Fold this sequence. Notes:
The chain is an alpha+beta fold and 278 residues long. The protein has helices at residues 22-35, 47-54, 61-75, 117-120, 131-135, 140-150, 162-168, 177-192, 229-250, 256-276, and strands spanning 5-9, 42-46, 80-84, 89-93, 95-101, 106-111, 126-130, 157-161, 200-206, 211-218.
Amino acid sequence: xxxxxxxxxxxxxxxxxxxxxxxxxxxxxxxxxxxxxxxxxxxxxxxxxxxxxxxxxxxxxxxxxxxxxxxxxxxxxxxxxxxxxxxxxxxxxxxxxxxxxxxxxxxxxxxxxxxxxxxxxxxxxxxxxxxxxxxxxxxxxxxxxxxxxxxxxxxxxxxxxxxxxxxxxxxxxxxxxxxxxxxxxxxxxxxxxxxxxxxxxxxxxxxxxxxxxxxxxxxxxxxxxxxxxxxxxxxxxxxxxxxxxxxxxxxxxxxxxxxxxxxxxxxxxxxxxxxxxx
Length: 278
């Protein structure tokens, strides 16, 4: 699982993960991590690959198949999205179908063609986090708040109305505020404080009865490193080296002298990159 990164379009953060338990959330985002940036509408995962990604502790094969089947059929296929862009408005399930090969020890999952942007179009509005850090969290409420706050990591502040907060975290409507404090906010604060430095949870109250109307999370914003001119210059050189190497490999130079000239240019650029990389 080392360095495995989950990255998806922010639209995913508007969808509540209804009835997902902690292990199912791990499985879902492990699947997203392996699918990101791929245009494939059908992706194959081996059992061992998924188990490794989420550090699945149970050894029984049938139990893993049952857990996977429950996640995919009862939860994954029911996870629906709405989209609204310049050209159209619509919606549907992110994943359309799956097939678990019990003998081959793998599962095939198909993505809704109209919603592939959730895992592919990630140029600007996306949420990113490390899968390993996510799977160490125990509470499903902490996991969901972790990914929601990651969207605002460079801001260090986010507020939700109490109605939206309940919806996004799928909090039972029967929970009064004291139960939300105990079952939702306490595990969130306990588990996320070491990750989001200076984490503070503030409840805004209005009216004579002091009814909670919104909940605000504040924490130390993460500094996003800027790409300096030397960084851009280095990347341009890397692109030039790759271009020249492809030409040398794919096209035969007219003569030995030309081949030697291209090889010398590549060597010179690589040497320059090593000196300028830092």
